[in-house]
Write a structure and sequence with these properties.
alpha+beta, 3 helices, 4-stranded antiparallel β-sheet, 238 residues
């Protein structure tokens, strides 16, 4: 009589199980890929925004130094402002050291005059200033850059144009004017209006608006440009 032992039946993985496993793996892979792409886009956007913020700070820094330092005279006893800054070029009055053009169409310009001092590392647009020389700096936005054309008036050399900061779409400036002689700002005027009213000697502040290309432009609800506004005192008239 034959004894019958128990038999273990072994069965391989079927096609259905393989397809299910592949589908689950594909879904997980797609999820991980999408998460990676989202993280990379977020990191790229953050870098772009950080770069724009740095550009904003640096551009406004140059203009702040220019406006607040316009008319600087290291030795007012030896030479008055009228002697140091005579009528020349766009400056039509003796002692005038600030001039703007434009009517708020993102194409305004700003011109300043100053005298370099021995310790004037933060003066001007370049690092090669000669102490005691007077300079004219003209700022505008061209080809996406805040540019500065710097002229050494004392040496009577040709202007050197520098591209300072990129990513700009335009610049608007209005000037705080003391039109009554009371010592404080009574109204804000464009450069063209100040020139028409002959109020450059009455300017107390310059309110600068820089328009930057928006790194997020094209996304829903995002404008083409973002603006940075700062009011800068014109120390020569305060």
């Amino acid at each position: 009589m034959k004894s019958q032992g128990s038999h273990l039946v072994q069965r391989g993985i079927g096609l259905v199980e393989v397809m299910i496993a592949l589908t689950i793996g594909l879904v997980l892979l797609l999820g991980v890929s999408q998460a990676f792409l989202t993280m990379r886009e977020t990191a790229t956007t953050a870098q772009q925004l950080s770069a724009v913020q740095n550009q904003q700070r640096m551009a406004m820094y140059f203009l702040h130094v220019a406006v607040s330092g316009a008319g600087f005279n290291p030795d007012p006893i030896a030479k008055s402002g009228e002697v140091l800054y005579p009528v020349s070029g766009v400056f039509t009055a003796p002692g005038q050291t600030l001039l703007g053009t434009g009517a708020g169409a993102a194409a305004d310009t700003l011109s300043v005059r100053f005298t370099a001092s021995a310790g004037g590392a933060q003066q001007g647009c370049s690092a090669s200033l000669v102490a005691g020389h007077t300079y004219t700096n003209r700022f505008n936005v061209a080809n996406g850059f805040l540019t500065c054309s710097e002229t050494d008036n004392t040496a009577a050399t040709a202007a050197t144009t520098l591209n300072l900061i990129g990513g700009l779409a335009g610049m608007n400036i209005v000037y705080g004017v003391d039109s009554t002689g009371g010592g404080s700002v009574t109204q804000y005027l464009t450069g063209a209006q100040v020139t028409t009213a002959n109020f450059w000697g009455n300017v107390k502040t310059a309110q600068v608006t820089l328009l930057f290309t928006n790194a997020l432009a094209g996304q829903p609800g995002q404008p083409q440009t973002v603006s940075l506004v700062e009011t800068i005192p014109y120390m020569a008239n305060i």
